[in-house]
Write a structure and sequence with these properties.
single chain; 6-stranded antiparallel β-sheet; 6 strands; 40% strand; globular
Length: 131
């Protein structure tokens, strides 16, 4: 299942890239091996960056994560839209497990994932408007 977002942001591509990536990733301009994260619900995942072209793009895939995902990957693309503005394009692809439960489980997981991602994007936009 594919989830997509497009968001106009009042900041440069470099500023947005710095905010989206962890401190370790900001210091490096090369491929990152793995990033471990725990969300508010307590799910822990480990993501590996497949491509990292700071500040314009990053693509990642889940190396290890919650039992509900058999596959999760995504791409963040940042397109400059003037000196202090940019467009953020976010695409995620997810696949749930077990296979026999996909028809029911995947739309539910996608809805939760969509809601959490939408909240993060809304918070990012609000933060950039406040500064």
């Amino acid at each position: 299942m594919r989830i997509r977002f497009t968001l106009g942001l009042p900041a440069s591509a470099r500023e947005v890239s710095d905010l989206l990536h962890h401190a370790t990733q900001r210091r490096l301009a090369c491929e990152i091996t793995a990033v471990r994260e725990t969300d508010r619900l307590g799910f822990t995942s480990e993501s590996a960056y497949a491509k990292f072209n700071r500040p314009y793009a990053a693509s990642l895939r889940m190396a290890r994560g919650p039992w509900a995902f058999s596959r999760l990957g995504g791409m963040w693309r940042i397109v400059p839209d003037g000196p202090q503005a940019c467009q953020l394009f976010v695409t995620y692809n997810l696949r749930t497990t077990p296979r026999y439960a996909r028809l029911v489980l995947e739309p539910l997981v996608a809805a939760v994932f969509y809601l959490q991602t939408w909240r993060r994007m809304r918070s990012l936009h609000a933060y950039l408007n406040k500064r």
